Amino acid sequence: MIISKLIRIIRHKIVSAEKYARSVGVKVGKNCLIATKHFSTEPYLITIGDNCQITYGVHFHTHGGAHVARRQIPQFDVFGKIHVKDWAYIGSTSHIMPGVTIGEGSLIAAGSIVTRSVPDGEVWGGVPARRICSVEEYIDRNKPYNLDSKYMSFEEKKKLLLSLSDDKFIKK
């Protein structure tokens, strides 16, 4: 018991988030970027598709709230599987609740609490998360700010960003 607990602690501290996810039972597709290690107590109920990005501090919840029912039904326990489809993006510190599916190519804004399934190709955000727009509308809205800098080195990107006028940056 103590040894298995030590192994879990060491694995949590020293392995990459993606390797950690796989080691605890999360089904992870190909070419994913995973930056969280918060996979609930039933990580084997979570499936992440191909080409997904799960950012820092995202929490997956596969159960919850059952404690209040245990006064009447002592062994009460409810669970929900979570499915993140291909090409989905989940922003920092979002919470994905039991039973939720994140649709293919969908974007979840940072800090969202997703309590309902998100259709393919939509942008959702807020507490609780709601539809903001389609991914196509998001792209159209942000095209004027696209700098095509994705594959630049750190120094190249820094040089570019520091040389631009303020009108090239998103303003809220």
Topology record:
Blueprint: H1 2-14, H2 17-24, E1 27-28, E2 33-34, E3 46-48, E4 53-54, E5 59-60, E6 82-84, E7 89-90, E8 95-96, E9 101-102, E10 107-108, E11 113-114, E12 122-126, E13 129-134, H3 135-142, H4 154-163
Structure characterization notes:
The chain is α/β, with parallel strands linked by helices. The chain has one domain (2-146): Hexapeptide repeat proteins (UDP N-Acetylglucosamine Acyltransferase, domain 1). It is 23% helix and 20% strand. The chain has a six-stranded mixed sheet. Strands 1-3-6-9 form a four-stranded parallel sheet, covered by helices on one side. Strands 5-8-11 form a three-stranded parallel sheet, with no helix packed on it. A hairpin with a 2-residue loop joins strand 12 and strand 13. The protein starts with a helix and ends in a 9-residue tail after the last helix.
Question: What's the N-to-C terminus distance?
Answer: 52 Å
Helix content: 10-25%
Give the CATH topology: UDP N-Acetylglucosamine Acyltransferase, domain 1
Task: Give the low-confidence spans.
Answer: none
CATH class: Mainly Beta
At the fourth CATH level, what is the homologous superfamily?
Hexapeptide repeat proteins
Summarize the structure.
The chain has 172 residues and is α/β, with parallel strands linked by helices. It has helices at residues 2-14, 17-24, 135-142, 154-163; strands at residues 27-28, 33-34, 46-48, 53-54, 59-60, 82-84, 89-90, 95-96, 101-102, 107-108, 113-114, 122-126, 129-134. The protein has four helices and 13 strands.
